[in-house]
From TrEMBL:
Domain Hydantoinase/oxoprolinase N-terminal: residue ranges: 3-171
PANTHER family documented for this protein: 5-OXOPROLINASE RELATED, HYDANTOINASE_OXOPROLINASE
InterPro entries: ATPase_NBD, Hydant_A_N, Hydantoinase_A, Oxoprolinase-like
The protein's name: Hydantoinase
Superkingdom of source: Bacteria
Pfam families for the chain: Hydant_A_N, Hydantoinase_A
Length: 527
């Protein structure tokens, strides 16, 4: 198996070629403003190592396009939101807790109708089918193509969401419907917010995937395209375009998976120091630990599958103030080779400090002659404090941990840190993010409430459903493995209710034959 893994960062676009489980070649090229040409350049840089026309089995790309669009308030599409919960929740309509500027970009209209289920799974109110059909016609007349459907307690019973989605497709044949139960768990507003963000990004996702396909074609690469997800796995390009929110934070998770692969460690803290940020995460069985609490994305409360990460403004391109010793959070980003002092620029960066300290050999060190040894030590001391503070935030116990340092800016990580037993550095660590993309598997995940069954029956049912989702997403059924199983009793629900989370991963099926299921008819399916 030969794969190319690519990760588009704020400063560099990294690419690796992996053949038979070994890293054959790794390259770095500057990230370009349009991103796509940087991807093409990264693929071309590998041309000396492989026949791109026939020798590659898969191309895996990680991108920050989608989360950047939310944070930077750009390229978002207006969304029609249908909430099925009346007469219960009209006091807090959709977009209630959104930043006003972001809501203005995404809010294409809000409709609320009767229906949904109660906390114990019983029907709360009859679904108003006639009102739903009228709403579909109004949405069609407004020219809206992206719709979110969110029903009260839909993770317990998604039937109302699926029924409304079917009506939308009947009235608006080319509509894109995001069913909220496929994205989030219990928590009406958070689940709804995640679904709205997803729907508002689908047009950008389709455009981005098309651009990646075009870049692939331009360099003569015929391998199928996969896009990395935020749980350390990948999805086929078409599926990734349906669910762009599942690519949020995928760059950091790529680095964590790459760190686990290159080091052989399954349990450790990972710090990925790039050009703009340092991202901290915790490996559990070789995969990123998942966040269990509300995650804010661009100022919006969400509760869906996201890695437990901490990001700080510390990277190779971070601005440095010699007077205070402060580092970041501003960064020169992909302009490092133009603006850093060692390259003839006029901006002092963390890379310049690394060169002055002898940690890395780049550019012209003579340009740093005016920086004193005390000033260098002061900046590096502040860097050490930042690293120690955030490693401690990721720890789950008081003892020392193993820290894997990867990324192009890993030279900023000292050998000794408080709370760290040892610092592990790996070959090709500068491209760990691309390695993580290249070796990624396909996942199937379930986060669902079960009632009226025993604990073992609930876990078995969740596992079976997760396995089916993994196979449907393109995994080889013979390679499936259980990565995580967690059950939590819910005291306020009757019938021995429990929340069960199960994650299954498997290798990419060579034929990538996808089976259809009932949910694909009415809602976009989720892996």
């Amino acid at each position: 198996m030969k794969r190319i893994g690519i990760d588009v960062g704020g400063t560099n676009t990294d690419a690796v070629l992996i053949a038979d489980g070994k890293v054959v070649q790794g390259v770095k090229v500057a990230t370009t403003p349009d991103v796509t040409s940087g991807v093409a350049a990264a693929i071309e840089a590998l041309d000396t190592a492989v026949d791109l026309g026939a020798g590659v089995d898969a191309l895996m790309i990680g991108t920050t396009h989608f989360i950047n669009a939310v944070v930077q308030r750009r390229n978002l599409t207006k969304v029609a939101v249908i909430r099925i919960a009346l007469p219960a929740t009209s006091a807090l309509p959709p977009f209630t807790d959104w930043p006003s500027d972001l809501a203005e970009l995404a809010n294409g209209g809000v409709w609320q109708i009767e229906g949904g289920h109660d906390y114990d799974g019983r029907r709360f109110a009859p679904l108003d089918v006639a009102a739903a059909r009228q709403i579909a016609r109004e949405i069609r007349d407004l020219g809206l193509k992206y719709v979110v459907v969110n029903a009260l307690f839909s993770p317990l019973d998604p039937s109302d969401e699926m029924a409304i989605a079917a009506i939308m497709h009947e009235e608006i044949p080319d509509v894109s419907v995001t069913c909220a139960h496929l994205l989030g768990g219990i928590g009406l507003l958070e689940r709804e917010n995640a679904a709205i963000l997803n729907a508002s990004l689908i047009a950008l996702a389709e455009e981005t995937i098309h651009a990646f396909e075009q870049a692939k074609s331009e360099v003569g690469l015929s391998a199928p395209l996969f896009v990395t997800q935020n749980d350390g796995t990948v999805a086929e390009a078409a599926r990734a375009a349906e669910y762009p929110v599942f690519s949020f934070a995928s760059g950091a998770t790529n680095s964590m998976r790459g760190a686990a692969y290159l080091s052989g460690l399954k349990e450790a803290v990972v710090v990925d120091v790039g050009g703009t940020t340092a991202d901290f995460g915790h490996l559990r069985q070789g995969f990123p630990r998942e966040a269990n609490a509300v995650v804010h994305v661009g100022g919006v409360r969400t509760l869906f599958r996201m890695p437990d990460l901490v990001s700080i403004g510390l990277g190779g391109g971070s601005h440095v103030d010699l007077n205070s010793g402060a580092i970041g959070p501003l960064s020169v980003g992909y302009r490092l080779s133009d603006e850093a002092l060692v390259f003839g620029g006029n901006r002092l960066t963390a890379t310049d400090i690394g060169v002055a300290a002898g940690l890395i050999d780049l550019g012209d060190r003579k340009r740093l002659a005016h920086i004193s040894a005390d000033q260098v030590r002061n900046v590096l001391r502040r860097c050490k404090e930042m690293l120690e503070e955030n490693v401690d935030r990721m720890k789950t116990s008081a003892g020392d941990v193993t820290l894997i340092a990867v990324g192009g800016g890993a030279f900023l990580v000292p050998e000794e840190l408080q709370g760290v037993g040892r610092v592990v550095r790996v070959q090709h660590g500068g491209c760990a993010n691309a390695v993580g993309a290249a070796i990624a598997q396909v996942s199937g995940e379930v986060d669902q409430v079960f009632q009226g069954v025993t604990r073992s029956e609930a876990i078995a049912s969740a596992r079976k459903l997760a396995e089916a989702r993994a196979v449907e997403a393109g995994a080889d059924s013979e390679s499936l493995a259980l990565i995580e199983a967690e059950d939590t009793p819910i005291a306020y629900l009757p019938g021995n209710a429990m929340r069960v989370r199960v994650k299954i991963v498997g290798d990419i099926r060579s034929t990538r034959i996808r089976k259809s299921n009932k949910e694909e008819v009415t809602c976009q399916s989720a892996s």
